[in-house]
Design brief:
Helix 2 runs parallel beside helix 12 (257-273) and helix 11 (237-245) runs antiparallel to helix 12 (257-273). The chain has helices at 3-17, 33-46, 65-76, 81-92, 106-112, 114-124, 143-149, 163-170, 193-204, 220-229, 237-245, 257-273; strands spanning 21-27, 50-54, 100-104, 128-131, 152-153, 156-157, 177-180, 211-214, 232-235. A 9-stranded parallel sheet has the order 5-4-3-2-1-9-8-7-6. Strand 8 (211-214), helix 10 (220-229) and strand 9 form a beta-alpha-beta unit. The chain has 274 residues and is an alpha/beta fold. It is globular and about 50 Å long. It has a single domain (3-266), classed as TIM Barrel, CATH 3.20.20.70.
C-alpha cells in the first residue's frame, strides 16, 4: 500500500465511523530501542489511528520538558535517524495499514543527506513528514524532494497564522494539517475547544485536507472535545510522561511500562469512541 493510500484511507475510514482519529506521538528509541519498538507495534491495537514518531534530536526547540527529556533518553540509549527508519521498517513487517509520520527537525536530516533520507524513508514505509523548523520559504530543501518521492508533507498551522500566511503555508501541504492549538511549546497548556473550533473554521475556508489538533491535549475528555471540532486529536506529552513514570531509578523500563502506556492510549482513544 502506498503512503498516499494509508493516510487518505485512514481518514476515509474515520469519516465512515463518524469519529475523529487519535494521533499518538512517541520518540523513537525512548526509553531504549527495544521497548520503543514494542510500544510502537502495540499502539494501533491500543487505539492509535496514526503514529507520529519523533526523530531524536539534542535541541528540540518546539517541545516542552517531557519531550525534551524523551529525546535525551533516546539519544543516550543509542537512538539515531538510521535506527528510527529501521523501527518503521520492522513495524511494517506486521502492519501495512497504520500511517507513520516522522516528526522532527532538519539538522539530523541535513547530516544524513536529504536525498538519501527521502529514499530511505520511502523504502522503510514512512508516510509523511512534519518538520518543525522548515518554513515554506525553504521548501526546496526537503519538502519538494519528499513530495516528489511520494511522502506527504504535513505542515503546522498556528493560532498566529493570518490568512495571507495561511495560504502560503497550505500551498505544498498534503495528507493532513497539524493545527497547533496554543502558541508555545508542547505539553504545557491547553486551549478551549470553542476557540479551536473557531480557528478551524477559518482554516477550512482554505483547504479540504483533514485537520488534526495538537499541543496541550492530555486527557480523554480533551481528546473528546477536540474530536468534536477536528478530524484528529494529537497526544504526545501525556504519553511521554507515562513512559517516564514507568522507569526505574536507573532510567530503565519497568516490566509494566508497555501495559501502562498502552492502557493510557486506550483510555485516550475511548474519548473518541464513546
Amino acid at each position: 500500500m502506498s503512503s498516499g493510500d494509508r493516510i487518505a484511507s485512514t481518514f476515509e475510514r474515520l469519516r465512515k465511523e463518524g469519529r475523529a482519529g487519535l494521533v499518538t506521538f512517541v520518540t523513537a528509541g525512548d526509553p531504549d530501542p527495544g521497548t520503543s519498538q514494542q510500544l510502537m507495534e502495540r499502539l494501533p491495537d491500543a487505539g492509535a489511528d496514526i503514529i507520529e514518531l519523533g526523530m531524536p534530536f539534542s535541541d528540540p526547540m518546539a517541545d516542552g520538558p517531557a519531550i525534551q527529556a524523551a529525546n535525551l533518553r533516546a539519544l543516550a540509549s543509542g537512538a539515531s535517524l538510521i535506527g528510527t527508519l529501521d523501527m518503521v521498517r520492522r513495524f511494517r513487517e506486521n502492519n501495512s495499514d497504520t500511517p507513520v509520520i516522522l516528526m522532527g527537525y532538519f539538522n539530523p536530516i541535513y547530516q544524513y543527506g536529504p536525498s538519501r533520507f527521502v529514499t530511505d524513508a520511502v523504502s522503510a514505509g514512512v508516510d509523511g513528514l512534519i518538520m518543525v523548523d522548515l518554513p515554506p520559504e525553504e521548501d526546496e530543501e526537503l519538502c519538494d524532494p519528499a513530495r516528489t518521492a511520494g511522502l506527504h508533507w504535513v505542515r503546522l498551522v498556528t493560532p498566529t497564522s493570518n490568512e495571507g500566511r495561511l495560504k502560503q503555508v497550505l500551498q505544498n501541504t498534503s495528507g493532513f494539517i497539524y493545527y497547533v492549538s496554543i502558541a508555545g511549546i508542547t505539553g504545557t497548556r491547553s486551549a478551549a475547544a470553542s476557540s479551536i473550533g473557531e480557528a478551524l473554521t477559518t482554516v477550512r475556508k482554505h483547504t479540504q485536507l483533514p485537520i488534526a489538533v495538537g499541543f496541550g491535549i492530555n486527557t480523554a475528555e480533551q481528546v473528546r472535545e477536540t474530536g468534536e471540532v477536528a478530524d484528529g486529536a494529537v497526544v504526545g506529552s501525556a504519553i511521554i510522561r507515562e513512559i517516564e513514570n514507568n522507569l526505574d531509578e536507573s532510567g530503565r523500563a519497568k516490566p509494566e511500562l508497555l501495559d501502562r502506556v498502552t492502557g493510557l492510549v486506550s483510555t485516550l482513544s475511548g474519548g473518541l469512541r464513546s
